Amino acid sequence: MDYFRTLRPLFTISQHWIRPRYCSNVAKSSVTSRERKFKSHISSGPNFQDFLKGVSVPKTPAADGQDCDTHSYLSEELHMGNSRKVYFETYGCQMNVSDTEIAWSILQRKGYQRTADLSEADVVLLVTCSIRDKAEQTIWNRLQQLTAMKKRRLKTRTPMKIGILGCMAERLKVEILEREKLVDVLAGPDAYRDLPRLLTVAEGGQQASNVLLSLEETYADVMPVQHAPQGHSAFVSIMRGCDNMCSYCIVPFTRGRERSRPVSSILEEVRMLSDQGVKEVTLLGQNVNSYRDTSEEQFCGSDLTQLSRGFKTVYRTKQGGLRFSDLLDRVSCIDPDMRIRFTSPHPKDFPDEVLHLIAERRNICQQIHLPAQSGSSKILKAMRRGYTREAYLDLVRNIKTIIPEVSLSSDFISGFCGETEDDHQQTLSLIREVGYNVGFLFAYSMRKKTHAFHRLQDDVPAEVKQRRLEECISVFREEAAKVNAALVGSTELVLVEGESKRSAKDLCGRTDGNVKVIFPKEDVAVQPEDSDMAPVNAGDYVLVKISSANSQSLRGRAISHSSLGDRAKHYETVQTAV
Ligand code: SAH
Ligand code: SF4
Ligand code: F3S
């Protein structure tokens, strides 16, 4: 059913327009009726840009038309960083980690420098999250500290500028600038190209903001600068925004409509990472398996597989183009020794072709994040997830049939509107039935603007939410401990991340199923059954014999160096023998 069309459009396209003032304060940026009239008059005539040369025009088409000082007439030279030092602090999900690299890439091109030392920063940028109230409280507290630091710095040397980027900038817009007078810059997730200009305005002593959402911004041409690739792993953003409108979730409001980055741009980034020696890439998006690159004409396969299995979608799905399975196929062909993971998929978009590809392609990890959110069909309906408990469990069975070795992880919310003890028990039983090895569990936090905020009652008391959450965590741990214990005695191919945090004598890495493995740091055979020994470094693949397990990790001993190719050969030999 196409619910989305019955809703008021969230984001409508508006045109940029010129404000006859050099550096206007954001508090003055709300659109008056006179300005609206003026805008409608000029929209049919030539644009102000037509009369100027060398002006910078934000490329992004605006999507909600609010709260943006365009200042497009500031010249390009004024947007230069002049070696000013930028310090980033990133909160929230992996999308923000990836966005930090995009924002940094844009600033680096303009001559900014990056620093890891807050005390020498000229510009401090917080990349923020709004998913739960607690996430926002963390930022408010941090802002208090930073503004106190900024006040102290005013007396000593060049003033420090503070910028709020990401989802909280988008959700709260000018409220932040009004509440925290010392914040200089506000940039929503689709406005990072505009950062150099915003910082220039801020340098002139004015607050500056751009929180326009876009229908098409994917930063496809901005190669993110991987600042500190961790253990030879990198995140590659493949899409932005989300159209799912789960009733509890703020993301569609902070990140806007779903759009996919073109395949060619993704492949280029993955090739570049492979050349740099990156061994593991995680494809990122809020809803990765609904990926669709419609810039490619090809149409691949049927779209109706999942919908006929008890899953429905609230929006009109796009047709044609290259889909997630095509992308996964192409990405996994780039480097047979590079592991490919993806997160987050939505249970509604798991056609068998994706599952078969995961089962067949040795470098696509047999690990699926399958966010359930609840085990009760009644609550799933209130959450607008588009599936029932039964449809979810059928999907789990199908996944386990096609990929018998699969590792599953999930997200759950405790204490959603109307959740009874019986609903909660159903969630506990679903966690037991599936047997995940990793879980992300949260107490429900009401977010303004969402469907739940307008239509449902946040009626589960805080202490009940907390108690249910703790019960979910303890069942999760029990099940994860069982799943991990089943690996004791097996030999796992581990990608080494580096030294273990607990002891410099140990190394740590991850299995194909994304379970952490700790093992002693010692030289091992260069390949299985070889007598030559070599040290083990971050980015190496090693075979580790597992000796013990708990709910969080495995312990074992490395036997030899290895590679994903070796693993493929190993499996082929075993299969032929069978
Ligand atoms: N697109 C991803 C989720 C991104 S948000 C997905 O659908 O899997 C990550 C998780 O935060 C969600 O899966 C959900 O479990 C949790 N979450 C989202 N909104 C929440 C809220 N209002 N209160 C508590 N948890 C929430
Ligand atoms: Fe939020 Fe649902 Fe979109 Fe995930 S799929 S980001 S939970 S609206
Ligand atoms: Fe948070 Fe925005 Fe990610 S709200 S979870 S940073 S998409």
Automatic annotation (TrEMBL):
Family annotation (InterPro entries): Elp3/MiaA/NifB-like_rSAM, Methylthiotransferase, Methylthiotransferase_CS, Methylthiotransferase_N, Methylthiotransferase_N_sf, MiaB_methiolase, rSAM, rSAM_horseshoe
Stretches assigned to the Radical SAM core domain: 228-482
KW Iron (keyword) present: yes
Domain TRAM: residue ranges: 485-560
GO cellular component: cytosol; mitochondrion
Keyword flag Transmembrane: no
Keywords: 4Fe-4S, Iron, Iron-sulfur, Metal-binding, S-adenosyl-L-methionine
GO molecular function, one term: tRNA-2-methylthio-N(6)-dimethylallyladenosine(37) synthase activity
Catalytic reaction list: N(6)-dimethylallyladenosine(37) in tRNA + (sulfur carrier)-SH + AH2 + 2 S-adenosyl-L-methionine = 2-methylsulfanyl-N(6)-dimethylallyladenosine(37) in tRNA + (sulfur carrier)-H + 5'-deoxyadenosine + L-methionine + A + S-adenosyl-L-homocysteine + 2 H(+)
Enzyme class, UniProt record, top EC level: transferase
Cofactor: [4Fe-4S] cluster
A GO BP annotation: regulation of protein metabolic process
MTTase N-terminal domain location: 84-204
SUPFAM superfamilies: Radical SAM enzymes
Cited PROSITE patterns: MTTASE_N (PS51449), MTTASE_RADICAL (PS01278), RADICAL_SAM (PS51918), TRAM (PS50926)
EC number: 2.8.4.3
Membership in a protein family: Belongs to the methylthiotransferase family. MiaB subfamily.
PANTHER family in UniProt: CDK5 REGULATORY SUBUNIT-ASSOCIATED PROTEIN 1, MITOCHONDRIAL TRNA METHYLTHIOTRANSFERASE CDK5RAP1
The name this protein goes by in its record: Mitochondrial tRNA methylthiotransferase CDK5RAP1
Organism: Collichthys lucidus (Big head croaker)
